[in-house]
Records
---
Amino acid sequence: MSDIITSLNGAIFEIILNRPDKRNAIRVQMLQDIASAVLQAEQTNGVRVILVRGEGTCFSAGLDLMTMGGMPEALGENWRELGNEATRLWQRSIQRLQDSSLPTIALMHSYAIGAGLELALGCDLRIAADNTVMSLEETRIGIIPDAGGTTRLTHLIGAARAKELIFTGRRIDAPTALHIGIVNQVVSPKELLEAGQKLAEEIMLSAPRAVAAAKRVINGLHNTAEGFHLEMVEQFPLFHSEDLAEGVQARIERRPPNWKGK
């Protein structure tokens, strides 16, 4: 089974996360498939907007911890020694959503945790069902959000609020996310897809080249490259830490971690 499904609905191109049995846990293959799907959308005549949503009970429960996001499969068993390349791989894949000339909208429901929220932050706009819980809780397993999440969240809601959410790994509900500016709309779960389609249709009332130009200007106002580099530099030693091994094991065993600061 493919990690994603693509669907064309008129001028709307849908990218659907398709690991429902794993709560759409994210791994390298999924992100690479998403990047390929963005290219497919750009090359399909008439497409104006990309929607990204999750199949099944949630948008995404985050990193696939059981396979460490598929890094051993993608880069080999010694992937930690290639930590910078691992970070760049995740960043590049999500960056395709941000760099696309097409506007991108994430539709989140139930859970958008860790790497799942990082994926949504790579989109231009976000709509959440009112039952959605969100977090960047990588610090609770001993690493940082390094797929662009630290950089994008800071640009979106400011340094103080980003620090609070990332330092604590706190989970927030959809109304809170709307209040602080993470999401653009909150709707009922039944209305989520319709809300995404309506927003896409409203965007399509504007000229496509003008929308693409506006996206480039707005994106260009923020120096994400420097932030991504800092994420990569700071993540590398964390990949080798005892705390990461303990954090992952504690999460799998559903117990509090015993941090050593090593």
Note: Residues 4-190 form a domain with the 2-enoyl-CoA Hydratase; Chain A, domain 1 fold (CATH 3.90.226.10).
---
Amino acid sequence: MKKKLFSPGPTPVPEGVLLAMAKPLFHHRDPVFEELFQEVREDLKYVFQTKQDVLVLASSGTGAMEAAIVNTLRKGDTVLVIRGGKFGERWGEICEAYGVDIIPIDVEWGQAVDPVLVERSLETYPEIRAVLVQACETSTGVLHPIKELCEVVKKRDDVIIIVDAISALGAVDLPMDLWGIDVMVAGSQKALMLPPGLAFIALSEKAWGFCEMSDLPKYYFDLKAELKNQRKNQTHFTPAISLIVGLREALRMIKEEGLQNVFRRHEVLARAMQEGVKALGLEIFSNPPSPTLTAIKLPPEIDGQKLKRNLEDHYGLITAGGQEHLKGKIIRIAHMGYFEPSDILQVMAALELELSKMGYPVEFGKGVSSAQRVFKEAGL
């Protein structure tokens, strides 16, 4: 049976990227790597929408999250953590591991944070040095209001905003310089259309100033040392050469399509998926939903874990279930990166059929036709 990824990471990898990574290796200290890395570094600035250096790390996205903490903060610093899902909780866990105190804003899972609450927290706790947030909370499919949060933070010279864009970069418009995002991290296995293994991080001038005062332990994730090397088109440690070769091809694809066209495609794919879900009488769990994945609230009679298994066993479609208290209650279907309208129509048709088999009343074609109308109206 053919298998197809609809999980929110890893996501499908284009054939051209796979073929590029299959070529023979070369040495990472040779001029051929320097030429490759120079192109990649410039193209990453295009995707991050920044003039700052975008550092490439051989790690998961969590490595870049850790790097953001240990390079900008000091032991005993206090940070504000937006906790509205598993990955918001991860920010807090990393901070606690390094002796950084956290003040949480606990947001109901499925809801976005209210910027007013962030502003109030910064006024109440003037010792806060950073605000830590996800652009897209992958565990719930929520899109947080990053632009509005940046407006709150950039009024304060002694506070930075650190954004986990792992499930957003390359699919959601996050203009780093324009909005004033101080630190932005990302991973390779989401909208950048690569296998897992690379992480990315960019810092504003303000954030680099914080690095000068940081006293947290760091070795592999020493960003000042990494910056020094990467400005010479080298890496501090051995890079993931094949992944960087693939990254060049993926970034070329993004540039060829055009960043604004990429954002529009993701918006239309998400809207088609959401309209199809609502046409079946189901609810979107996230408010507001991210363009990168759709989290569907399931009726009590439908076991989300069983639905996830059946979609894979019967149709080869690999989705994701809920986590923690949402296990069995939602299903998450991704549409970030290498996706087009036919993918949405395929998963929607399979969802209709499997829900019907599980006893949910389905009018066949209703979800699919709703998605089709969105694509027709959008000219896709």
Note: The first helix runs from residue 15 to 21.
---
Amino acid sequence: MHILHIGFNSIHDRSFRTERPEGTEGYMLIVLKTPAVFELYGEKNIVDRNSIVIYDKHTPHCYYAIEDVFVNDWIHFDTDYDTDFFRSLDLPLNSIIKFGDVEFISSIIRNLCSEFYSVNSKRNEMLDCLLKTMLIKTSEMISVSSLTKFSNPHYGKLFSLREKIYKNPQYKWTVDELCHEMNMSRSYFQLIYRQTFGITCISDVINCKINHAKNILTTTNLSINETAEECGYDNNEHFMRQFKKHTGVTPSEYRKKYK
């Protein structure tokens, strides 16, 4: 497998629009970090952030921004002699794949992007390995999501709650408030949340806030203090400690690197 072109955290304004009537020679994987409109099979679909679309070869592309800023990761790749491997993953093509969080997939793309523009002697081997890892992980996440939907009677309410969390990163969520939303005991709620999403509810709340902070840092000129407030932090030092713990860099360093 090899990558033809790649972009991480690509930022565009509201005028952004992509139209490729003939598609591309290879596959195109797009990770949405902001909402957008995708035209698939002649229908317009409003697609939320934390969604993935994988276009098949020679399939028309049409998607565009619906907010002031459009942010995405993307990979244009081909399978070469690994077509059987790619097909074995059974990834849905030309469809909207909705996840609660695409941070892990995005982190692999960040590494792929770094490696793609490097001059390392083992560059091609690393790219092949990382690309396959990302595709396998995407396939696994789809499988887990599908199983959870059918086996967990609380999935619908939990998914709605998680969407509420991610749409309100400024809110100071507590376990007790989340339990109340689900009308569950504290211990049972924490157990079922982790079983469903593979992460504790509070860790998920923190991830939501850190992801929102990343977006603010790379798309606005708000100060670090203002960013902390927008993400629901009363204590600026607490925000900076938590941000560095999750990203490995300070908010200022992250802005300098990715804006």
Note: The first helix runs from residue 83 to 88.
